[in-house]
Amino acid sequence: MTEFEEKLRQQHEDSMHRELEALLTTTNKAEAEISRKDFDGFKKLFHRFLQVKGPSVDWAKISRPPEELIQPYDRIKARGLPDNIAVSLNKLAVVKLNGGLGTSMGCKGPKSLISVRNENTFLDLTVKQIEHLNKTFNADVPLVLMNSFNTDEDTKKILQKYKHHQVKIHTFNQSRYPRINKESLLPIAKSMGTSGENAEAWYPPGHGDIYASFQNSGLLDKLIAEGKEYIFVSNIDNLGATVDLFILNHLMSQPADKRCEFIMEVTDKTRADVKGGTLIQYEDRLRLLEIAQVPKAHVDEFKSVTKFKIFNTNNLWISLPAIKRLQEKNSMDLEIIVNPKTLDGGLNVIQLETAVGAAIKSFNNAMGVNVPRSRFLPVKTSSDLLLVMSNLYTLDAGSLTMSKKREFPTTPHVKLGSSFTKVQEFLARFENIPDMLELDHLTVSGDVTFGKNVSLKGTVIIIANHGDRIDIPAGAMLENKIVSGNLRILDH
């Protein structure tokens, strides 16, 4: 860095520290105490953001990981399970990332409270899965929810209903970081409040924040004191992320000096997953490479299914003592994701974020496990919701599994148009969910509704042009059909 750049950097940093101190004076003492811890983390991130220029990886140094570092799931499963797997279960806690809102699906409040199947929400299914595990093995696996300031209050209200379930539930809060003005690099917040003019001034800084906020909350030490050794972390909207006993057993059966401290579940890439992060070998360590870190000239190469064959499902198994060690040494150097946003008033801001999987490079004996696609079943859109609500899946003790009646293991490719984006609108367009057991591909665009007991097979494309409407009649069976034009069915 030139002397001028160094001075400028120092100036930005001093100004930021002054602004943060000023913000802390706008709230009460207890609140300021919590926010000060958050701001300590933010200052470190901001400091690194000012240091780093350009892509964080040197493309020439990237290579595919050696085979032994990414084990096929079948090899791990082939080892079987010991009789006393309950002993291992008692050393596990399940952490669900619960910081997201349902806004992208047109819902208010936490995404985890959207109904996905038979009136069960994401949270209901999670609690049922873990309760089933605890009852079956007479174990004590707790559920830990990482909330954000956006979801904490609503989630805590709902947790009352699980009081009599056989699951201990803990929550902790992700940090709250200030959005910064792209030009001045200063916080846009006027005070520590989160409403009114400050409603858009704060953000939860990505799931990489789990390590610091988990430790700050005191929950990390509490779980270690209770004899827990590993956490299984996943996104709450991934319905395939259930506790896998074979992976757990693999972790627990390693010799003490070769203990694997981090497992990332990866799965084979399809054309739909080209943006997902992938595992690479970089300077003799396993590393997660995200699309945001890739130099522009290499983005197409990154998206290719031939060079990078796998992607990160964000199902992670992480050693608790290792998190504690790395946090205390302050040696978890997570790549910064700079996320630019334009607020409603047109103001350009940036959010500094990190990803939980990026920490893989800091842990000892880390590895990937190439798991079946069924462990990656995220519900991000109404198209995903249609799949999980349909007869393609059966629900048992909170777990969704592909129906035995489906003859091939892949899920159909479903693309629903903008009329289906919001969950309420989506539900209003289906009298009930069609039979999709033999469906390969469904595209629906425009103003389309489905009557009762419709059956879709093969490739079905339904397109209602602007101003037209298509009502698929009750009991219709569409196999390899394209439907277009205008069809109204009205009550007489």
Automatic annotation (TrEMBL):
InterPro entries: Nucleotide-diphossugar_trans (IPR029044), UDPGP_fam (IPR002618), UDPGP_trans (IPR016267). It comes from Pundamilia nyererei. This is UTP--glucose-1-phosphate uridylyltransferase. It is an enzyme of class 2 (transferase). Pathway: Glycan biosynthesis; glycogen biosynthesis. GO terms for biological process: glycogen biosynthetic process; UDP-alpha-D-glucose metabolic process. Belongs to the UDPGP type 1 family. GO terms for molecular function: UTP:glucose-1-phosphate uridylyltransferase activity. UTP--glucose-1-phosphate uridylyltransferase catalyzing the conversion of glucose-1-phosphate into UDP-glucose, a crucial precursor for the production of glycogen. Its EC number is 2.7.7.9. It comes from the Eukaryota. UTP binds at K111, Q174, G206, D237, K380. Keywords: Nucleotidyltransferase, Transferase. It catalyses: alpha-D-glucose 1-phosphate + UTP + H(+) = UDP-alpha-D-glucose + diphosphate. The lineage of its organism: Eukaryota, Metazoa, Chordata, Craniata, Vertebrata. Coiled coil: none annotated. Transmembrane segments: none annotated. Homooctamer. Substrate binds at H207.
